[in-house]
């Protein structure tokens, strides 16, 4: 697909859910053993065609973010603020400039209960 597109693809999305609401579904060591080399291979391939990689991963994946960065992930989607350790402001402080954090709206609770004014105020934080 990347070859056939001849440079006209800007972004590839892939994904795996490595987290639950409370923590990781697999250990960092298991990620290293089972996924890291294949992710790096895929991300390197995408980059070789001049595209970026956004990777979907629900839940609490904070402990894996340094590994995602090492593999060459450009953006992590979805940041779920209600999941353990996934406060978007903390993640930004820790990982800014190394990976794009995509998402960060609590679509499972806060958004449904908020007024338009509260949403607007949050966007401008």
Supply database-style keywords.
125 residues, single chain, 42% helix, four-stranded parallel β-sheet, alpha/beta
Question: What would your notes on this structure say?
Answer:
- This protein is α/β, with parallel strands linked by helices.
- It has 6 helices and 4 strands.
- The protein has helices spanning 2-5, 28-48, 65-71, 88-95, 110-113, 116-123; strands at 11-15, 52-56, 75-79, 100-103.
- A 4-stranded parallel β-sheet has the order 1-2-3-4, covered by helices on one side.
- Helix 2 (28-48) packs parallel to helix 3.
- The model has no long low-confidence stretch (mean pLDDT 92).
Strands, count: 4
% residues in beta strands = 15-25%
Number of helical segments with 4 or more residues: 6
Shape category = globular
Provide mean pLDDT, rounded.
92
What sequence of helices (H) and strands (E) makes up the elements? HEHEHEHEHH
Rg estimate, integer Å: 16 Å
């Amino acid at each position: 697909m990347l070859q056939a597109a001849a440079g006209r693809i800007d972004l590839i999305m892939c994904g795996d859910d490595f987290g639950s609401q409370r923590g990781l579904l697999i250990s960092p060591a298991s990620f290293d053993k089972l996924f890291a080399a294949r992710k790096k291979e895929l991300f390197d391939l995408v980059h070789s065609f001049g595209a970026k990689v956004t990777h979907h991963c629900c839940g609490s994946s904070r402990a894996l973010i340094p590994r995602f960065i090492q593999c060459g992930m450009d953006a992590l989607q979805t940041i779920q603020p209600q999941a353990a350790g996934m406060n978007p402001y903390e993640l930004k402080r820790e990982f800014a400039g190394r990976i794009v954090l995509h998402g960060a709206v609590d679509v499972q609770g806060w958004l449904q209960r908020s007024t338009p004014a509260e949403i607007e105020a949050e966007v401008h934080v």
